[in-house]
Amino acid sequence: MRVAGYDPATEPYEVRKRLGILFQNPENGLVAPFVEDDVAFGLENLGVDREEMRARVAEAIEAVGLSGYERREPHTLSGGEKQRVALAGLLAAGPEILALDEPTSMLDAAGRREVLGRLQALRATRTILHATHHLEELVDADRILVLNGGNLVSDVTPARLFSDAELLRENRLVLPTVQRLALELGLSPAELRTPERLARAVLARAARGAGAR
Amino acid sequence: MRLELRDVFHVYAPGTPFEVEALRGVSVAVEPGEVLGIVGGTGSGKSTLVQHMNLLLTPASGEVLVDGVDARTVERGELRRRVGLVFQFPEAALFAPTVEEDVAFAPRRLGLDGGEVRTRVRDSLEALGAGHLAGRSPFALSGGEKRRVAVAGVLAMGPEVLVLDEPTAGLDPATRGDLLALILGLKAAGISVVLVSHDLDEVAEVADRVCAIERGVVRAVGTPAEVFYGAAEEDLAPATVQTVVALGEAQRGVGRPVRFRETLAALEALAEG
Description:
With 213 residues, chain A is of the alpha/beta class. Chain A has a domain at 12-132: 3-Layer(aba) Sandwich (Rossmann fold), CATH 3.40.50.300. Helix content of chain A is 46%, strand content 12%. In chain A, strands 1-2-3 form a 3-stranded parallel β-sheet. In chain A, strands 4-5 form a two-stranded antiparallel sheet. In chain A, helix 2 (35-46) runs parallel beside helix 4 and helix 3 (50-63) crosses helix 4 (79-93). Chain B is an alpha/beta fold. Among the domains of chain B are: 1-74 and 163-170 and 198-229, Rossmann fold, CATH 3.40.50; 238-273, no CATH class. Helices cover 36% and strands 22% of the residues of chain B. Chain B has 10 helices and 10 strands. Chain B has helices at residues 46-50, 76-82, 99-109, 114-127, 143-155, 173-188, 200-206, 224-230, 239-245, 260-271, and strands at residues 3-12, 20-30, 35-39, 61-66, 69-70, 83-86, 161-165, 192-196, 209-214, 217-222. Chain B has a 6-stranded mixed β-sheet with strand order 6-7-8-3-9-10. In chain B, strands 2-1-4-5 form a 4-stranded antiparallel β-sheet, with no helix packed on it. The longest helix of chain B has 16 residues, at 173-188. Chain B is globular. Chains A and B meet through helix 4, helix 5, helix 8 and helix 9 of A and helix 6, helix 9 and helix 10 of B.
């Protein structure tokens, strides 16, 4: 195994500088008494100078929508807020590769959209590994790797995966609600990503039916 | 059992610069045998609210009533048994060398005899589809298996109300589906369930009533159709409801379906004229 050319077994610190992990349960990653210290923790370990650290911490806190929370104690935050703090810590450290384990599991719809938007913007300069059971979060991915029982089963595009009922079933994957409705209605699940598009497709079919009669 | 919160306020770190008013006059009841979904944004007060249900948190003002009786007068251990609370990421509290011993911990503390404890452990693990894990170390299980075991540990106390705080967060679809089936099974057995979730699609499938909270205030309580169709404009609706609302004018002929099957049937009828 090599990460950015380094062997994790012999050069773990080189690897950790370049690859940051966001754990599934945000509690597992929170260490400091205040939100801003927690976000700064990774930078402190990298020896970043004070001024730059301040700027990067402030920027990361803003990026996850937690401005005003700097002096809050992490243990008083909600699950979703803790998850944002953990993500801010990772963004501040700014590794080349971000490995995220269910990064939105504790977020509401608006928070999920914000975080996904942020990750989308990071794609220009970073590599993102996003592990999730929520397939709707992967509709814009370049590639989806399907794992089952410790084996790599498939390496496909989202459009391909979403329309392969057998591959989904064999790996116990469930399509998002909108795509499931589309599939059951005999419409294309890969194209109908949003409730609005699905509604339009249903109305179009109803109009065609009415025209034919 | 009927559980009622009446005008509950809760303040974290009162009198300090970090003071946060997390609940501001919340009134909501859990009716016997119902599934009550609690929804709301991050930091809206959902977890604070449910931690009042067994007085793990005590209100700054307001009351918690158990069958009409002030919960503070109920013996604390008895209250915690009758109202079982499963925390977010409950697997973090697994501690025993085997699954069986972990699940047995609470019923044993209730002073039940060995035979009764064994029966409860077995039944709870079976209910969670985790009977085959009894002899395993909880630390060697997958995330989904750990979650099943942690929920079984609370179920083994024999609660009359089971409160689940984000029980499906981070879970695979199969485990999630099993947990939702368990909720409906408990309801069929007369146990009330309170389901706190960010996943509106799952709340839509199992809830009898929904309570929507926002910044510590109850914004709406009612049937899933009432709450979700009333809030569809503001992101607080499952994908089924959003799709129906997006039909615009044509929605009138469709009604207000919420669950997947009902919504599918309504859309099929519309598409086929």
